[in-house]
Every structure is written in structure tokens, then in C-alpha cells.
Amino acid sequence: MSPSVPAHTPQRREVEVLTDLFGDGLTDGRISWQPYVQPGREAVDVHWLYSGRETGPDGAEAYIAHFRPGAHGDLHRHLGFELMLVLDGELVNDNGDRYRPGTLVVERPDSVHRVTSPDGCRLLVVREKRTVALLPGESPDADLALTGAPTRP
User: Fold this and answer.
1) 128 within 8 A of 82, measured Cβ to Cβ
2) Poorest-confidence range of 76-80, 90-94, 107-111, 147-151?
3) Where is the ChrR-like cupin domain (predicted)?
4) Backbone dihedral region of 87: left (phi > 0), alpha (psi from -120 to 50 degrees) or beta?
5) Which of 121, 137, 138, 150 is the Cys-Cys partner for 117 at CB 3.0 to 4.6 Å?
6) Pick from 77, 73, 22, 84: nearest CA to 44
7) How far, in Å, CA of 143 to CA of 126, rounded?
């Protein structure tokens, strides 16, 4: 016989649920997209799950990104870990790695990189801490992203 579990009354809370993200859920109009306006970033829309507004200026953030064809992110340094899960399309990292649907990418703190998507893609991005934008040629962007781990099939 299993031990009895004390009664629990669920509390009211705000919960966001996005369904069918590997199917029509990304394209059927249920997700509200807004432009991700940031110097050095072009043709990227996002659906914020949570951001620094809720977690503080150096806090965590998570969003679903929609890179339109030819889009690119800014050149930036990570202050904490970043997870990127490719949901559809293909994301290209500046070290030449190409990430297709189902690929999980982990960028480490202090890594510097810039991503692009020649044909467009959508991905889930979860950042432990914010990033710091860098200008091309600004230290440290020399070869840091080129030391990333190799892509595994």
C-alpha cells in the first residue's frame, strides 16, 4: 500500500502553454510575434516567454525566435549559459556549424558568437543571464567562437 498523499488545492497562477511546436503550432497564428529590435540584429521576431523585465537586469530570459530568411543575430558575449533548440529550419553559427530541427546547442559563459539563418528558422532560446552586444572588431571577438565543440550527427 502506498503512503497517503496530503490533499493539495491548486492555486490560481498564470501559465503559458504553447502546443504543437514541432508541427503547426509555430505557424498557425497562435503565437504572437514582435520584432526583436537590437543593433546588429536583423529580420528576427520573438515571442517572449520571460525576460529581464521579470527577472531583473542580469536575469534569465527565454523566448521563441523566428529568423526570417537571411536574418542574423548580433555579435554578442554570453554572461551565462544559453540553450538553443532548433524547432524548424536551419541555424548557422559563425564557426560554420549548421543546426537542424531537434538540435540542442549549449553556448557557455564568455563565449562570443553570431548566428544567421539563410533560409529561415525558429528556435527556443533560454539564457541564464543576458548577453552583451559587441561591435565587429571589438575585443574579444577574434576566433573565440571558432573554438566551439564539434557538431555531432
Assistant:
1) yes
2) 147-151
3) 31-126
4) alpha
5) 121
6) 73
7) 24
